[in-house]
Specification:
The chain is an alpha/beta fold. It folds into 2 domains: 224 residues, NAD(P)-binding Rossmann-like Domain (Rossmann fold), CATH 3.40.50; 180 residues, Rossmann fold. Strands 3-2-1-4-7-8-9-10 form an 8-stranded mixed sheet, sandwiched between helices. A 6-stranded parallel sheet has the order 13-12-11-14-15-16, with helices on both faces. A two-stranded antiparallel sheet has the order 5-6. Strand 15, helix 19 and strand 16 form a beta-alpha-beta unit. The longest helix is centred in the middle third of the chain and has 31 residues. The termini are far apart. The relative contact order is 0.09. Bound molecules: nicotinamide-adenine-dinucleotide. The site of nicotinamide-adenine-dinucleotide has 25 residues, from helix 5.
Length: 539
């Protein structure tokens, strides 16, 4: 079933045979047009848009140079992506209007992009791009060292690739992986599969990681952005450079070519660990600010003026997204389990992840304290969370701080409602028995989580406000930035507690909420107390 509720029948073996035949005929036609055949494995947040970018690329003569088959397993949870994409509809939701336009153009007008569920597509490929997930499974909420890398999807994909591709096909791994993976995991899998098929040549394996930012600049963050790449040998390096130069805007954003895949794999892990670390570092200063009358938002704005410090950013209610909570941990894991070192050289990287993983729990403390100040207990309080995604203007809920806010407040006895303009279904709750993997929901770190399976996203924000005791502003979605306090209190029907997790409220709004009888608290916003006192004194 698609997020919009449309049902699709899963394909049978007979369907698959027909699909393979259809692909062979189609690819023969495309080859006659002189097009390179590209298969993108994994139509997730990265693969679906990367597939469209490749399909949209042009030869120097202005004609399409590639025919792209996006390949996705026909699993009950993701099969819907295939029929939707074949209609020209993007399987991901984003604030970037170019995503929908690009996919519709490639599927309906240029006819350079299709989606399929059969691995037989791989036999027809000149280039295979691997965009499947490589997860890190944590055993505890606040110690990432105890977790382990789950490479199953990647290893299975590579085995299937090795069994089917032409020996001359380039395999480009874009998945974020523990350093060492391309040469120590991918190479042996594909090489052995080749040997079983009597192929003696080396596979042509390359690595180039994604820096995609699904948001307002989703498409540009893939196409018009700098890339790092590498290959396992000179031929792989040359092939990946030629390919990326033919699909990305490398004239304005030149490629960085590194010697070995372990270097480009490490670059990705260090890049994201750096980001996770500067975010984690602000957690303690956020607490400091709350306890000492400091508005961290103004402090950060003051510091950012200095060019050397312009990338300092407020961490919000936890650092979600698929990547920052796991990538550093993939590095630690690879150091030990792929590269064979037993000593423990890592201090900052895991600490940053652990701090970020638990930051959201503090929001529940703020809600509790705000309600207490209003003389209301948190047990049975009605609480509306505005924003489920991990960041503004995307529909991606993976490892969002918002999830932990819901879980903690629920175990404290609150009744939760949730609104998010970009999220249709919040699978982390609806499917918490099996998502992200059976036994690996973050539900297991909390009590009383069963009823959250019934949590549904409210579509009408104003209706959802009716009668709530507290409202948590969790994400900087455009729809939440300009909320008018008068309108909010009218929609709620009474004064309520407002918890600002992401510096959404300016001082004028904070003041107005107090004047309307509300209580306000915010992460990193210790100056709120001053505003409250000044309203009380009537200034
Ligand atoms: N999402 C981001 O913002 C982002 C940014 C940079 C890098 N990355 C990295 O890119 C990679 C992909 O991330 P994503 O966000 O697109 O993940 P995703 O989970 O959205 O997509 C992965 C897709 O691969 C499919 N898949 C798994 N096994 C398959 C198989 N055997 N055959 C075909 N399809 C298969 C899954 O069903 C899923 O649709 C990850 O390594 C991630 O760390 C993601």
């Amino acid at each position: 079933m698609s997020p919009q509720g449309e049902r699709f029948r899963l394909p049978t073996a007979a369907d698959e045979a027909r699909e393979a035949q259809r692909l062979r005929a189609r690819v023969a036609r495309e080859r006659r047009e002189g097009r390179e055949i590209v298969v993108v494995m994994g139509l997730g947040f990265v693969g679906s848009v990367m597939a469209a970018i490749v399909a949209d690329s042009q030869r120097p003569d202005g004609k399409p140079g590639k025919f792209v088959m996006g390949m996705q397993r026909p699993s009950p949870r993701s099969f819907w992506k295939i029929p939707l994409l074949n209609r020209g509809v993007a399987p991901v939701k984003s604030e970037d209007p170019e995503v929908d336009v690009l996919i519709a153009r490639c599927v309906r007008e240029k006819k350079t992009l299709i989606a399929t569920y059969t691995y037989e597509a791989l036999r027809l490929a000149d280039v295979v791009i691997v965009d499947v997930q490589c997860d890190y499974l944590k055993e505890t909420l606040d110690n990432c060292r105890t977790g382990t890398t789950d490479m199953l999807a990647l290893e299975e994909s590579l085995a299937i690739i090795g069994e089917r591709i032409s020996p001359s096909a380039l395999v480009l791994i874009e998945t974020t992986v523990p350093p060492g993976t391309t040469e120590q995991v991918a190479y042996p899998i594909v090489k052995k599969a080749f040997e079983r098929r009597g192929i003696s040549s080396d596979p042509i394996l390359a690595h180039s990681y994604e820096r995609v930012m699904p948001g307002r600049n989703y498409v540009a963050s893939i196409r018009d952005f700098w890339r790092v790449c590498s290959g396992i040998h000179a031929e792989a390096r040359e092939r990946v450079v030629t390919f990326l130069e033919s699909v990305l805007n490398t004239r304005e954003y030149p490629l960085t070519v590194l010697d070995r895949p372990i270097e480009s794999e490490t670059a990705k892990i260090v890049e994201n660990s750096y980001r996770a670390t500067i975010l984690a570092f602000l957690d303690e200063w956020s607490r400091f600010a709350e306890r000492n009358g400091v508005d961290l938002r103004k402090v950060i704005d003051a510091i950012r003026v200095r060019p050397t410090h312009s990338n300092i950013i407020f961490p919000g209610p936890g650092i979600g997204g698929y990547c920052l909570p796991k990538d550093g941990a993939l590095g630690l894991w690879g150091y030990r389990h792929l590269l064979g070192w037993h000593d423990d050289i890592f201090r900052m990287t895991p600490l940053a992840i652990d701090i970020n993983d638990t930051r959201a729990l503090h929001v529940a403390e703020l809600v509790r304290d705000a309600l207490r100040n209003m003389g209301r207990p948190i047990a049975a309080a009605e609480i509306l969370l505005l924003g489920a995604a991990y960041r503004e203007d995307v529909g991606d809920t993976r490892y969002s701080g918002a999830e932990l806010i819901v879980r903690r407040l629920t175990e404290m006895g609150a009744e939760m409602r949730v609104h998010d303009p970009y999220v249709e279904r919040w699978w982390e709750f609806e499917a918490q028995d099996e998502y992200p993997k059976p036994g690996y929901s973050r539900a297991r770190f909390f009590h009383r989580q069963d009823k959250l399976k019934d949590l549904r996203i409210e579509k009408d924000m104003w209706k959802a406000m009716a009668g709530v005791d507290a409202m948590v502003l969790a994400v900087r979605h455009a729809a939440y930035l300009e909320l008018d306090p008068e309108q909010v209190v009218r929609a709620v029907g009474k004064p309520c507690a407002i918890i600002d997790c992401f510096c959404l409220l300016d001082d004028a709004r904070i003041r107005r909420y107090f004047e309307l009888g509300c209580e306000v608290k915010g992460m990193g916003r210790g100056h709120i107390q001053r505003i409250k006192e000044s309203v009380r004194r009537g200034h």
